[in-house]
Amino acid sequence: MSGLSTSPDDVAIDGAVPPAAGGKPPSAAAAAKKRLSSPWASLAAVILAIVWTIPTAGLLITSFRPALDINKTGWWTVFTNPDFTLDNYKAVLDSGQTTSLSPYLVNSIVITIPAVLLPILLACLAAYAFAWTDFKGKNVLFVAIFALQVVPIQVTLLPLLKLYVTLDISGTFWAIWLSHTMFGLPLAIFLLHNFMREIPAELIEAARVDGAGHVTIFFRMMLPMLKPAIAAFGIYQFLWVWNDLLVALTFAGPGSATAPMTKFLFDLTGSRGTAWYLLSAGAFVSMVIPVIVFLSLQRYFVRGLLAGSVKG
Amino acid sequence: MDWAPKLLDMLWAIVLFGAVVAVILGLAALYEKRGGRRVGWWFVAPSLVLVSIGLVYPALRTLWTSFNDASGKKFVGIDNYTAVFTNSDELVVLRNTVLWTLVTPFVATAIGLVYAVLVDKAKGEAVAKAVIFLPMAISLVGASIIWKFMYSYKDPAGGSEKNPTHQIGFLNQVLVWLHLDPVNFLLNSPQNTFWLIVVMIWIQAGFAMTILSASIKAIPDEIVEAARLDGVGAFEMFRFVTLPSIRPAVVVVLTTIAISCLKVFDIVRTMTGGNFNTNVIANEFYSQTFSQDNRGLGAALAVILFILVVPIIVYNVRQLRASEAR
Questions:
Q1: For the whole model, what pTM was predicted?
Q2: Does A40 touch chain B (CB under 8 A)?
Q3: What is the CATH number of domain B79-142+188-325?
Q4: Domain map of chain A by residue range?
Q5: pLDDT digits (tens, 9 = 90+) for B7-23
Q6: Can you give the residue ranges of every domain in chain B?
Q7: If you classify domain A102-307 with CATH, what class do you get?
């Protein structure tokens, strides 16, 4: 099993997005670039960056334009004819209107928090047992859970839906919470297990000698040390759940009862595909929170992303 | 407002859940005090129950359903699988999935790699990277809306002399500026699949860039110095020093993107609904299972997806381990 228990920290790819180093000697790429007459390299980078930004910038500008203008002229005309309004955002946020997104925003929050917390809690326990306790069948079980990461969630949807109908929780938040928890567990256990293995065995043994039980060790020693790993998985799972469409389409109830924003936007594209004033503002409301989370916790996100690359 | 009861529900669920875990832990502690040796089982049990119910059991059920008819009740052998590989609609689905999986990883990785090299050690590197990486943080539905707007098309013949039609989609406006005819990007097959793939490339290039950039920075300075002293030129440096050093990371990036392309659903569902010959396996699975009510065929598609994903993941994991072992 030792082969699998290597930590993601060892991977050559870790430490993604380090701050641009100042005093360090130039890397291979920097050396290569220097020879590639620098102005051209910079120009190419700037062009790529602009091309990558235009789609988002276009829709962002559109979301602040009057609904009538949006379908008549392109967003680039604002540079010659500026005319801005907040009406689109009012239309999607005002809870009095039928186009209101706010109940779905609430649903997204209500879905996401437990769907992130539950797998973390359960996975911490399981990962601890796999890393630091001994029981029969431990290795086989761990490999099995690791292997479960490859199961595409499509394979599980219909039987799960039937199960939820039988349990009479179909269409409720429970169905969505449970689904995300179950789908997230293999990755969470794997990630946290790798991290726990890094903690020096002497620490655990010393505590055992002092008479501490596993339950005590888990709460007093493990949880505080696990913060980076929990953050890595937490952010990954947060973005996954918040941005998910498939699970929401399959398990969420009708209307605004339990459906998250992604489903609302998806339905809106289907029913009112040219209502760009709603689509643009709605899309940006749904993006604000993940972008903030992403920008503030980029480092952890990349680590979780890499480890979770096989999930879904 | 109906948010208060929902939030209460949420809190209640968290508390309930915490309580269940606390009871399990309490029992485990008790058991341990009494000299029980296998306390690990108590810790693993909740997760084990959930993955058995949520992954193992449904996967086996789906495997069985894939050998049954549309109602999922009558055994039909491998008929559903035969249908997937012979029916002309399903063949389009397979063709598109192959296109997605072959084109996206290479283009996205190439762009990500070039960008990583270009901004390496440059001024404002962090900002430059965030710009490319940001699409990764937003939902695929959001990305689809962004790009559907880029692609939007207005029939030029729809306007009048006095009131001419203006394009509102940026790409069509670019065509107009170049004195070309606007194109209905998402309607014309088979190009439309490529226009959908562009969205995925837009998202995944940031992922490739981030991973490869970190890997480039991990190349030991001595190697670079030695090559430079030998008078190696820029392209030789890239070809013979940078590229071989980051090869494992490149493979991981390629396979990772390939996996997300095999499973691509949100983009196709949101932008075309799989119409106009843009359908892919994951979307066809959803349509067959939940709209057409052809459970057997839907299950077979899900199983095929599973079978396609496994070898790539196995390869990916091996590469990850190989790069760790170095």
A1: 0.89
A2: no
A3: 1.10.3720.10
A4: 25-93, 102-307
A5: 999 999 999 999 988 89
A6: 3-52, 79-142+188-325
A7: mainly alpha
Q: Is the ipTM of this complex over 0.95?
A: no
Q: How far is A83 from chain B (nearest CA, A)?
A: 16
Residue in chain B closest to A14 (alpha carbons) equals B214
Give SS3 for B2.
Answer: coil
Q: pLDDT: is B140 or A11 the higher one?
A: B140
Distance CA(B234)–CA(B231), nearest Å, equals: 10
DSSP B57-85: HHHHHHHHHTTB-TTS-SB-TTHHHHHHH
* Secondary structure of chain A in HEC code, one letter for each residue: CCCCCCCHHHCCCCCCCCCCCCCCCCCHHHHHHHHCCHHHHHHHHHHHHHHHHHHHHHHHHHHCCCHHHHCCCCHHHHHCCCCCCCHHHHHHHCCCCCCCCHHHHHHHHHHHHHHHHHHHHHHHHHHHHHHHCCCCCHHHHHHHHHHHHHCCCHHHHHHHHHHHHHHCCCECHHHHHHHHHHHHHHHHHHHHHHHHHHCCHHHHHHHHHCCCCHHHHHHHHHHHHCHHHHHHHHHHHHHHHHHCCHHHHHHECCCCCCCCHHHHHHHHHHHCCCCHHHHHHHHHHHHHHHHHHHHHCHHHHHHHHHHCCCCC
Instruction: Provide the shortest C-alpha distance from residue B159 to chain A (in Å).
Output: 11
B256 near B250, Cβ under 8 Å?
no
Taking CA–CA distances from B28, the nearest residue in chain A reads A215
- A183-212 residues touching B, CB cutoff 8 A: 183, 185-186, 189
**For chain A, which residues score pLDDT lower than 70?**
1-37, 302-312
